[in-house]
Amino acid sequence: MMPSFSDPFEALFSLQRALDAHLASDWMGARTTAMGSYPPINIFQKGDDFVAVIELPGVDKADLQLEAKENTIRVSGRKAIDYGDGASMHRRERVSGVFDRTISVPIEIDPDGIQAEYRDGVLALFIPRAESQKPRTIKIK
Amino acid sequence: MANEHELQVQQKREVDKKPESTTPARRYLPVTDIFETQDALKVILEMPGVDKDGIEVRVENDVLTIDGQVDFSKYQGLSPVYTEYNVGNYARSFQLSSEIDQDRISADLQDGVITLVLPKAEKAKPRRIKVG
Fold this sequence. Notes:
Structural class of chain B: mainly beta
Mean pLDDT of chain B: 85
Order of helices and strands of chain A: HEEEEEEEE
Mean pLDDT of chain A: 85
Number of strands of chain B: 10
Helix content of chain A: under 10%
Largest sheet of chain A: 4 strands, antiparallel
Structural class of chain A: mainly beta
Low-confidence stretches of chain B: none
Number of helices of chain A: 1
Number of helices of chain B: 0
Radius of gyration of chain A: 19 Å
Order of helices and strands of chain B: EEEEEEEEEE
Oligomer: heterodimer
Strand content of chain A: 35-45%
């Protein structure tokens, strides 16, 4: 269901409502993977293919590893925080540590075709559907 | 991996005392660390998806305000199927405790994390108190 972007002032709110509507949806089905683990992932459909958007603020690209096989994707790495010497804390909300998360998607994908882009703390994965899964139009004689 | 602990998900918190805005979208509080060193106050905010064109920092009447705008055009044509977090612009304000030299505030943005360095004005630097 495509959120409508016809009214530019409503566009952002429509996106936020659409994201809420799919919170912990059962798209993943009866797989071993589920939410709760870091980092939080949003998955979108774009035509036949899929896009996963993951927020990783403060993670250096060098500290991030991605692996894909069959229909699972693994994101791992560490998020480091360094305050330097002589710092006296007023407020502490950020967390640091290591993460290693695997998600399995309920569709056949082409792991060799996955493209990853990381900018401003957001990792976007373009996940193409396997060619064998794409619908083919059938001509009616 | 032995010494580092595993990260936990932090859910986004919405801005609570909201001034009325002209658009009906939710805004979120960026996760923030504030610490003080000898010469400056450092404010570090996490705003994933915000680039340097999207950030606005101002100090008025000793209140530091940071606004971060996310570029949502990249979500055009994308239809959500499974989500775990929401997105929105970021906003947060802090009452500054020390006198800050406002002309020398500097900001650095890296991987969605903005680090603000607010140098203390000379008279605000701590004086050691002698214990008799």
